[in-house]
């Protein structure tokens, strides 16, 4: 059997012109590259940041190729202590190149938002010193810009790589399919691009997975693959819970078209039911022991996610499959066993629909306030939700934004439509633009009378809308004292085993942005508290 090279690797862009999407970030990167042509510029380092799989690392390497620079790379899997950084990057930043290609060497530091772990202690400090003293260009790569200290950020140019739009991915996927001699049915590439959620690496991986053993792919192949896969998961989970052999459970997991991230969810979901004792509610020692193994497996999964070092998946697989098998003190059950799909996926489905609703509300707020979706979501939604607490304004806000009852519940942070919200909603109906009483942009007489009683200092709705926090830049969820989570990132990546890696999590963000201090936030539930 020949092992196929991963397409994501095979089609990694070799030059900046081949990077998909990201017109503006690439322009900025080129400008910075040009600034090195005639000496050492003032800004010696850039931070490329954005979600995983969108081309940050590829762009850094493509840039080196375009400018004829050598590359020195320090990955997160390397021990990035202050000593190592100073030794590798420090000397690289001072020395002339061996080949003398263009006299420059680019230092790439991956996962720069993960410099605080034990192995990286002192790493951030060392990078700051290296940047200050370097005569060579440095690129830091990070998923989360807020995981980098402000002192380090102040020395760098920040270039944000946004999620890649599906419409930009489609032509690039088509090129890959063409190069692989693949015939793609109508809508196939569009579906893959949409499913990828802005992550081009996922899109390329999905295209490769669905085309395995085929020269032609159609939309139906995706659903058939999903169905076949479900059957094989039941078989593998059965081998883990019913079998006695570690080897066969592990080997079965290798045949699975699921990642260990998914398999651990299946084991986690079914373990308590499978290893309980008949008619007893008690947690058995088998369950405790098996969860011990799952928790250790989960630590490896966390490391894979952070370091993108997929070799560690095998340890995770071994621990979750073999560990569950050896924790079994005796074989249980018989006959047909029904396994439950992971409830995390159900929860993720629910979260997805709330996320869609959240975006819908943000786009309505954006349309009314003439602000971006992101700003509406991260900042203005809070303002509007506070207005909804005020009986004078609530109905107008609902009418102006044209909220439906579900959106009203979500924006106010309630769990259900309370009596008050129902009344607000009912009142809003007569204020809607299409109602007989005219658009809500005009304060109805009854409301006006009530407002005028409060005197000239009473803020009008429009003036309230125009109030903005001093700084428009979105703030890290970590820094938010109200605990809201604009990107729903509080949902655990696996949510499976009870353990968490001590290295996980980004900087704790203890300092509260001064601009936010000025906005007094009540610890209430809002649109973003999921
Ligand atoms: N914008 C892009 N243009 C072309 N290929 C891309 C792009 N983004 C991702 N890819 C593909 O995905 C693979 C992974 O990309 P890359 O490593 O550059 O992503 P990244 O943003 O650095 O992700 P991570 O944060 O996980 O390291 C590349 O080998 C390439 O095939």
Characterise the protein shown here:
The protein is mainly alpha-helical and 530 residues long. It has helices spanning 7-10, 23-34, 56-67, 82-94, 123-133, 150-154, 166-179, 188-195, 200-210, 219-242, 246-254, 260-274, 285-307, 313-326, 343-369, 373-387, 394-401, 405-412, 419-429, 445-453, 461-465, 514-517; strands at residues 45-49, 70-74, 105-109, 138-142, 156-160, 183-184, 216-217. It has four domains: 7-160, P-loop containing nucleotide triphosphate hydrolases (Rossmann fold), CATH 3.40.50.300; 166-217, Helicase, Ruva Protein, domain 3, CATH 1.10.8; 240-341, no CATH class; 356-517, no CATH class. Helices cover 49% and strands 5% of the residues. Mean pLDDT is 74; it is low at 97-102 and 436-530.
In brief:
By secondary structure, this protein is mainly alpha-helical.
Please outline the helices and strands.
Layout: H1 7-10, H2 23-34, E1 45-49, H3 56-67, E2 70-74, H4 82-94, E3 105-109, H5 123-133, E4 138-142, H6 150-154, E5 156-160, H7 166-179, E6 183-184, H8 188-195, H9 200-210, E7 216-217, H10 219-242, H11 246-254, H12 260-274, H13 285-307, H14 313-326, H15 343-369, H16 373-387, H17 394-401, H18 405-412, H19 419-429, H20 445-453, H21 461-465, H22 514-517
Parallel strand pairs: 1-4, 1-5, 2-3, 3-4, 6-7
Helix pairs in contact: 4-5, 7-8, 7-9, 8-9, 10-11, 10-12, 11-14, 12-13, 12-14, 13-14, 15-16, 17-19
The structure holds adenosine-5'-triphosphate (ATP).
Function: Part of the RFC clamp loader complex which loads the PCNA sliding clamp onto DNA.
Subunit structure: Heteromultimer composed of small subunits (RfcS) and large subunits (RfcL).
Biased composition (Basic and acidic residues): 447-456
